[in-house]
Amino acid sequence: xxxxxxxxxFAVGLVFALGLGISGMTQPDKVIGFLDFLxxxxxxxxxxxxxxxxxxxxxxxxxxxxxxxVLGDIFQIPQRTDITPRLVAGSAMFGVGWGxxxxxxxxxxxxxxxxxxxxxxxxxxxxxxxxxxxxxxPLLTRRADAKAERAGAxx
Amino acid sequence: MNPDMTQALLLALxxxxxxxxxxxxxxxxxxxxxxxxxxxxxxxxxxxxxxxxRLAFVVGMIAxxxxxxxxAPEAIGTPTGRSLPAMVVAGLLVGFGxxxxxxxxxxxxxxxxxxxxxxxxxxxxxxxxTGAVTVFVVRVFLGGAA
Lengths: 155, 146
Prior knowledge:
- The structure holds two protein chains of two kinds.
- Chain A is an all-alpha fold.
- In chain A, 70% of the residues lie in helices and 0% in strands.
- By secondary structure, chain B is mainly alpha-helical.
- Chain B has one domain (3-140).
- Chain B has helices at 3-30, 36-41, 48-71, 84-100, 107-114, 118-140.
- At the A-B interface, helix 1, helix 2, helix 3, helix 4 and helix 5 of A face helix 1, helix 2, helix 3, helix 4 and helix 5 of B.
């Protein structure tokens, strides 16, 4: 990997984190207030998604018109369109954790240098959850494959 | 809308614009979707060619956190009324769930919605709903403490 590639990635991560901090996403109480639709709802964080989506919507189309990325070979953009139980179940789990802890992955990384017990514990567990997924995922996939095979045999 | 709320909304918008620009930059440079759970989780895949830029991105985010702490320490907070055991459960759910669901607030919420991805729309609606239900349950049934 070329040094320029690492440097650009570092810079992009840094700007991303500043964006999270400026927006309020690194304040879990604000996030919890934003998710409290039936209570004293704080709508401010709608602006994060609004601002991010508008910029990405307008600019990503211009970018992908190039044949490929400047420092890589190809654009790696998800092409899947199937709504799967995994997508829904995973997103549901994520939401519960988000509402419970007030952090999603980006803000948890950004808040790490504050070294508070809450963020350290959250980030450590988040990483453990990702590791656990790596262990469990092959088992889930194998079961799904076996099920598909059985369904194929039935048909 | 009161002035405080207007200011919070403007800051959120400005932060969102920065996040959008950073995400577009990563697409332009590396051809990648700026999904934090994917960038972080992908570091666990034994693919050494991919490891470098992912680590650099994560280190960049942490460096951003350091800058925030030095310039605007109030920008980084901790949740009130949440115990450390609750944070363990929350972290596990966020880590496992974002990998199972192929993305989080950034990958699905910013990049996915901008591409009009049906999968991302379903993901965002799902995690907003379960997040809201969780906050409601903690506030109403657990007296605001978990």
